[in-house]
Automatic annotation (TrEMBL):
<dbReference type="GO" id="GO:0008168">
    <property type="term" value="F:methyltransferase activity"/>
</dbReference>
<keyword id="KW-0489">Methyltransferase</keyword>
<feature type="domain" description="Methyltransferase">
    <location>
        <begin position="43"/>
        <end position="136"/>
    </location>
</feature>
<keyword id="KW-0949">S-adenosyl-L-methionine</keyword>
<dbReference type="GO" id="GO:0032259">
    <property type="term" value="P:methylation"/>
</dbReference>
<keyword id="KW-0808">Transferase</keyword>
<protein>
    <submittedName>
        <fullName>Methyltransferase family protein</fullName>
    </submittedName>
</protein>
<dbReference type="InterPro" id="IPR029063">
    <property type="entry name" value="SAM-dependent_MTases_sf"/>
</dbReference>
<dbReference type="Pfam" id="PF13649">
    <property type="entry name" value="Methyltransf_25"/>
</dbReference>
<dbReference type="InterPro" id="IPR041698">
    <property type="entry name" value="Methyltransf_25"/>
</dbReference>
Length: 208
């Protein structure tokens, strides 16, 4: 089995375990960082069940939303129909290390693009930067560690700091402006109702 198939199977099983995995609400940082941008073309990488893509479409963005999991994408497309915004979202299945959507975008968002399977995250984020249009924004949100109580099953998994995320993008300094680079704490409620604290990191860059 190829590593792409291993990842696709992993994420399809992950989503198939419950009818709904995520909250159905858009990520707070996406809402905070994007609300004041003029809507244009958006790309959502690792869109999961589609809450961010649907929120973007509701704000007037034309959205391309990508995930490796056909189970997640099927669910997301149904949610978009229910919300009446399916005509504004193009759902695409990619293993982003292998293939990437065509086009250029005024916003590229990667919210918690992590995996317990092999993920060439730095290379994917470099591809993400390469499809940001002039004056467009790249927004990357990531965890800084596993939830409390969950041990790292793969010691190789590394959660990069904002500086490491930016260094990994390997961008020409004069072409990009750093708008946000920060670590922050966020309250989250787990599936079993337990409230926890997550430490996350935000990187927001604008192409000059
Ligand atoms: C932690 S979830 C985050 C989902 C969503 N962005 C959110 O914030 O709720 C990571 C998502 O990335 C997707 N993913 C993982 N590896 C991927 C890959 N190599 N290519 C495309 N999507 C991938 C998973 O299927 C999953 O939906």
């Amino acid at each position: 089995m190829t590593t792409e198939q291993v990842s696709e199977d992993y994420w399809n099983s992950f989503y198939a375990e419950h009818d709904q995995i995520w909250s159905g609400r858009p990520n707070v940082v996406l809402v905070d960082e994007v609300s004041d941008l003029a809507p244009g073309r958006a790309l959502d990488l690792g869109c999961g069940e589609g809450a961010d893509a649907i929120w973007l479409a509701q704000q007037g963005w034309t959205v391309t939303a990508v995930d490796i999991s056909s189970v997640a994408l099927g669910r997301a497309a149904q949610h978009a129909k229910d919300a009446g915004v399916d005509d504004r979202i193009d759902w695409q299945q990619h293993e982003l290390g292998q293939s990437f959507p065509d086009g250029e975008f005024d916003l590229v968002s990667a919210q918690f693009l992590h995996s317990k399977t092999e993920l060439s995250r730095d290379a994917i984020l470099r591809s993400a930067a390469s499809v940001v249009a002039q004056h467009g924004v790249l927004l990357i949100e990531g965890h800084m560690g596993f939830p409390p109580g969950e041990h790292n099953p793969h010691p190789d998994i590394h959660f990069p700091t904002p500086d490491e995320v930016i260094a990994g993008l390997d961008l020409p300094d004069d072409e990009w402006e750093t708008l946000v680079s920060r670590v922050h704490d966020r309250a989250q409620v787990m599936r079993d109702g337990q409230p926890i604290n997550r430490r996350d990191c935000t990187v927001k860059l604008r192409r000059r």
